[in-house]
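Students often ask why we bother predicting the structure of a whole assembly rather than each chain alone. The short answer is interfaces. A chain on its own may look different once its partners are present, and contacts between molecules only exist in the joint model. In this exercise we take two input lines together and write out one structure for the complete complex. Read the inputs first and try to guess which parts will touch.
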Amino acid sequence: MTRAASSESPVARRILIGVGLLFLALFLALPLVVVFVQAFAKGWPMFVDAIGQPDARAAIRLTLLVAAISVPLNCVFGVVASWAITKFDFRGKSLLISLIDLPFSVSPVVAGLIFVLMFGAQGWFGPWLIAHNWKVIFAVPGIVLATVFVTFPFVAREIIPLMAEQGRDDEEAAVSLGASGWQTFWHVTLPNIRWGLLYGVLLCNARAMGEFGAVSVVSGHIRGLTNTMPLHVEILYNEYDFVGAFAVASLLASLALVTLVLKSLLEWRFGYHQARSAH
Amino acid sequence: MGLTIVWLCLIVLIPLSTIFLRAAGLGWDGFVAVGLSARALSAYKLSFGTALLAASVNAVFGLLIAWILARYEFPGKKFVDAAVDLPFALPTAVAGIALVSLYAENGWIGSLLAPLGIRVAYTPLGVVVALIFIGLPFIVRSVQPVLADLGADVEEAAATLGATRWQTFSRVILPAIAPALLTGFALAFARGVGEYGSVIFIAGNMPYKSEIAPLLIVTQLEQFDYPGATAIACVMLVASFSMLLLVNLLQAWRAKRSAK
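Now the answer. The structure tokens for the assembled complex follow.
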């Protein structure tokens, strides 16, 4: 015990650990447990029945669709933005990084509202969209836009520090050996950032599938058409269909658990870890 | 490079600017009439007050959890470390219905508190509970790496000079982690002010009593009161940008400190 002089007594340690774990059990574990307990409160058949409802299935399909569009979009943007920020020098770099982080500090409801103000019936492009019979708000494109907005920073903020740390040496070597820009990216840069990219995609996907506030404002809650899984949870809950609400919620909770497991695997197995502030 | 800026403008900057342009279109009197109405003011008070309270609770317990994760060994530590991020991964609506079913009067926790006369669900206290859930990882993840990096030598020096463990903590460790703790606090607070999904189920949503500002925006929208929603959104945006500025200043302060 080299740190005996500057550490707590075993009793104090146990008390601190006990209090910390109790707090976590109360505020983190219990809510998760209650979701699954409520989902299976009336047994397995009721659970399967709730998930099999046409509206629930439509909500699941829509959530998968929205994630399938918005995650790759933000993925491409994240890589391009990090590339631009770390491989080139220009003025206003730190401002650009702050701007990319901006959606994190905007309330989800406000995020939804801005798209209503732009594309809604009273919005800037509203009359033009109506004239061309295009629906954005209260339709799938609006949901995708709002999701892209809230998940905007996830991939970029994972890769920017990673690329900055790796520097430009590998790329410069590849280029001097005659590789084209695209070859350099594909064979040098991408393998270097693959774990960071995966990490960002994981978090981005979890948020894209689970987003509630922003999507709620633009969706219009049309059952079977513009209801994502989190919105469907709300509707069922407000109709006192608790088994149904918690059944769909348990699917989302499972997604969260899978995300956490994969994220931890990335951190432990591949040593992918960055000391960074939370988001 | 150009592509980055175009995409950023299309998705983030132009949409955000619509709020300010629309709010400006209201004129000052119109803006004050809705953005600073009595109902809006009590919603801001609730949102900011509960976020402040929840962030303070999290500052204490988040610091404690970061401490045990960074300093002690105990069974299941890796598992606990991973579990701290749950609020980031769990969809807010799921958190919301889970919390309300726990804290409702017939829920697991609510039924224990009810005989004591404490009501959590459908009161401002419920809002605080939801925001504690949402904000916890911000504090832990901000403080934990700094605590882990803090060398043992300064603490040993303090102990050698006769400081008690508590004196070492309050005079040596706390000042060293203060910037990280404040950053986490600001992030948790900012998130709490804007939080919607996990709060609306447990809040009860009574105007003037348990109606948070984001919910007021949604209510205005449902009544097709776009100017009202815009004015409130504008106030919230200004607040969150100020928070963002504060976080950046804190981080600059932190960088300056560690450079010394």
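Check your guess against this: Chain B touches chain A through 98 residues (CB under 8 Å).
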